[in-house]
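Quick board copy: two proteins, each given as sequence then tokens.
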Amino acid sequence: MFQVFSDFASWLIYSLIGLSPDTRLGESLHFFVEDTTKIFALLVVMIYVIALLRASLNVEKVRDYLAGKHRFFGYGMGAVFGAITPFCSCSSIPVFLGFTSAGIPLGITMAFLITSPLINEVAVLLLVGLLGWKFTAMYILIGIAVGILGGMFLDAIGAERWLQSFAADALKKGRENQEGLVTEPEEEQKLTLKERHEFAKDETTEIFGRVWKWVFIGVGLGAALHGFVPDGWIEAHLGDRQWWSVPAAVFLGIPLYSNATGVIPVMESLIVNGLPIGTTLAFCMSTVAASFPEFILLKQVMQWKLLATLFVVLLTAFTLVGWFFNYVPLM
């Protein structure tokens, strides 16, 4: 299925441009062209198809559904909704306030916000195409588990007391409204096929416009690693499953920033270059969910104590994930 992209890259780089496949530049550019065209094709086709299926999904429905659920059930549903809704750190503030205003416990909200940048439909599709179903399923389960456990822990320690005052007031008011406010259910509006097509087209255009640059950045970094990093260098420095290599990879990912879409080609290249799966997962999850830009945004709704606690929770979780998959056989 994906051979056409490899053939196109070979024709462009080796035949038309005339680079040799034995050179690092030729190998790197071939990797870049093949993965970029493959990812863009998946983006356009699959985002459109998925958008047709989720044309009626919106944040308000997710929020209202979670508001009425039992606390422990809510952690799981919050993480699952985070996995299937296309939010990233740039949209974390309005989503956070929307959930707190509905009276949803902080842990459920955090389960949603932790999982959402780690997993989305684009990332899942790309992972399937690049690394296969087994790795994709593993990645999804890890992301959901981190969201659930992180949310449960934050509720257990009463972390909501460390919200900024306006966010805490919104949460309190939302809880008061849950029992006293009764609203008439809105009549479900059924979209026509044309309306769904328009929604899917707009969704494809919007998401593609938002992530294409991250695809170029991610594939570019992956191509550089694939073509120019000396053979065995990564494996020699971080690939021997030393206990310190996983936390080192986690801290290395913090200053960087990417979304799940952009980090997947980097993940593929790191694995190809010999980095263990656990170390690779720890690095990439840190880059996506524990980066400085996201925490700068979250400072608007969280006090420093909550930010620091969340930071430690994520770093600990990613380190444990890395150690687990480095030392436990997957087969």
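And the next:
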Amino acid sequence: MQNVLSLWASMALRRKIVIVGATLGMFAAILGLSRIATAPDMALLYSGLEPQAAGEVVGALEQQGVSYRIEGDSIHVDAAQRDRLRMMLAGQDLPSFGAAGYELLDGLSGFGTTSQIFDAAYLRAKEGELARTILSMPEVRAARVHIAQGNDQPFRREARPTASVTLTTAQGGLTQAQARALRSLVSGAVAGMRVEDVSVIDSRRGLLDMDETPPATDRAERLRQNVERLLAARVGPGHAVVEVAVELGTEREQIIERRFDPQGRVPISSEMVERTSSDTRPSGAVTVASNVPDGDAAGDAQDGRSSSSETQETVNYEVSETQRDLLRSPGDVRRLSVAVLVDGLTETAEDGTTTWTPRPEEEMTALHDLVASAVGLDTARGDILTIRSLQFEQVAPQGTLAEEGMFSPLKQMNMMQIVQIAVLALVALILGLFVVRPILTRRPEELEAPAPVLALPGTTALDGELEETADADDDLPDPVARLRRLIEARQVETVEVLRGWMDKEERT
């Protein structure tokens, strides 16, 4: 201990500062490495939660005394406890995704609950259950369902309920098939609702139009896949190439046609009016005898009698009428072109040579008919189908095989693991440069050489031991003072003596 203190006292201030800083830095590195080594491996528990649901999960973790870390909208816990915590939180109905479901009806009692309150609670419960079902899809991150129930009004016969679904996807957006499935799900859960009464709104793409016609590329791709699957059953996979070109109409046309048929008359009503009238006047002169009832004027009065009759008939006819409304929407196929290339037959001889021959005409005709039926070929529309049997060229593989690189494992690590590896590498580099390297680079003869001799003028010393001789320092009564004076005068030799002593102790 006395030697250490003496050595520390003989050092300069700059060297003392360097030694203290290096010691503190080494202790700090060791402390950091120990904390990193003992820190638990954090794994993702939940991410993308709503603030309310995330707060409930954090509160439950704090009640259990579990350490956690929050990064953005993600909650990380110890990887060894993640599965247990998920099961525990699921038992507490956490996290709560969206609105509550049918558990809302559990708190309703018969006292003080009117029919309007029950209907509103039932509607809320149904919206929550539908939102939970939609959230079970892995592509959906958040979802809300709104149902508008029509009021019972006596003068409104058609009051169908409507619904809207607002959702946020994790990556990309929903496909047309998935959006149609959501509309069918919501419409089937609400009585009286039709599929077209449901609107699906994506937070990134806006309103999803389910009535839009698939583009020509999608239709051509579907036809191509059908034809290739049909040909693969006969010629084998990879022995047929199919290309389909579909020309679609892009304009919208509406035709209203109304025709009258004069020959197709149908009586719808008939009215007949008949009138009859009679008149009697005397034909002779007016005399006294004609005014007497029994006179001769009675016979003459018959000659002045007249009668008339009139018949009138009215018939109403309905003329035959035909009205036709024709609406042509975009997406109608105008022209279809299909090109099919089929490989021929390859035969291998006994000597190893291969010969190629085209397929027979009978087989090509049969394949032509099959392809025409698969794509719905219409020659009257101008569709074209071309099928040929030609030899396929063997295409050499291009490029080299992509193998896993040296830094590929780093992609599977998180940032904390990379920092730990970097710190460990830095500590190993420091130890290698300043501790291991001087030992390994020293020559064996230097390790076996005796300790350097420290001698002053007029003195002799062997193997690092100093002998007292008559010198100018003999006037110093204290040996320690003389040794200190000697070390100050011969600093380089003193260091070599100390190093030799250390080497001797290591060899021993």
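Board note added afterward: The two ends are 21 Å apart (CA to CA).
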